[in-house]
Amino acid sequence: MEEKKAIRKQIFAERKACSDKEIQEWSKEITKNITALPEYQTADRILVYADYNHEVMTGFLIEKAWADGKEIAVPKVQGLDMIFYKLTDFAQLEPGYYGIPEPVSGEIVQWEDALMIMPGVAFDRQNHRVGYGGGFYDRYLEKHPRVKRVAAAFEFQLLPQVPTEPTDISPEIVVTEKQCIRG
């Protein structure tokens, strides 16, 4: 646990040090890399986080997915769980859990056959993931094992190795602005 805390502290500091322009440019490259994946091209439905605080920006991906005729849903925290709301307009989002943009209205969806774009703090080349510590994605994915998992990350979030626990559910692919790493 201490090791994960130290990693979070380090990556948050690196994220904060990035300029808005860098975050935007890299996020556009990551969007290009995700949308080039066969997993994206064959998916009709995408579960994607709403970015916050210098995470990989997902707005570009959401707009591209809408343009490609795909359905989008974003998470809202309810107690210890995440529920996904279909997103048809950015106006549905308002600051929620810890100030993270969350849907305030819309249709709740339970998509089993979908592509999930997940956030994370740090990853390694085996696609292990250090999340934010709430366990929301692990609990959700445990209940929805058919969902395909892609993580969006900046290159500086890749570490030689990150600690893992038995309950951690790793992404199948980690996509950065420079590469796609398949686990």
From TrEMBL:
Organism source for this protein? Answer: Blautia caecimuris
Its protein name is: 5-formyltetrahydrofolate cyclo-ligase
- Keywords of this entry: ATP-binding, Ligase, Magnesium, Metal-binding, Nucleotide-binding
Q: Which residues form the signal peptide?
A: none
* The family this protein is said to belong to: Belongs to the 5-formyltetrahydrofolate cyclo-ligase family.
Q: By its UniProt entry, which Pfam families does this protein fall under?
A: 5-FTHF_cyc-lig (PF01812)
Q: What is its EC number?
A: 6.3.3.2
Q: Which cofactor does it need?
A: Mg(2+)
Q: Which reaction does it catalyse?
A: (6S)-5-formyl-5,6,7,8-tetrahydrofolate + ATP = (6R)-5,10-methenyltetrahydrofolate + ADP + phosphate
Presence of keyword Ligase: yes
What transmembrane ranges does the database entry give?
none
Any one GO MF term held by the record is:
5-formyltetrahydrofolate cyclo-ligase activity
Q: Which domain of life is it from?
A: Bacteria
Is the keyword Hydrolase assigned to this protein?
no
InterPro entries reported for this sequence? FTHF_cligase, FTHF_cligase-like_sf, NagB/RpiA_transferase-like
